[in-house]
Amino acid sequence: MLNKKNTVSQFENIVRVRVCGLLFENDRVLLLKHDNIGPEGYLWAPPGGGVAFGESLEKTLKKEFKEETNLDIDIDEYLFTNEFIGKKHHAIELFFKVSRISGELELGKDPELAQDQQILSEARFFSGVELNNLRENAIHNAFHTANARDKIAELRGLITFKH
What's the Cα-to-Cα distance from 33 to each of 30, 63, 89, 94, 123, rounded to whole Å? Predict the structure, then answer.
């Protein structure tokens, strides 16, 4: 059984630096469903995770992608920085456009969480229409900044989202 309090509380009241990868294939972007997060009870977000002390952004993003999706990636370009400031959460997220080198998509795990606290429940590619049909509170806040959600890779600079 998922212990939501423990899952969420380990990321509260700290500033986290994260890397996120936007993988586009056939005009679709890969997102992971995170359960027990946000007002909808779930959140669709790109693969990625927290940067550990002494670990490069590139190494972190490649590692997180492999752990969460079973995909090996190359980093194509740095896109933008998203800063999320909430009541209990503060994240600085660096977004990169990535491409698949190898592997078949398979939902993995978040190694930062215990086995009984895993929150990843689905991995899938979304078309622009599907992205735009997701409820606002069910998709990562960076998607709200783009003119259209499927244009997220066109964002540049610093985006600050206060909640």
Answer: 10, 18, 19, 19, 6
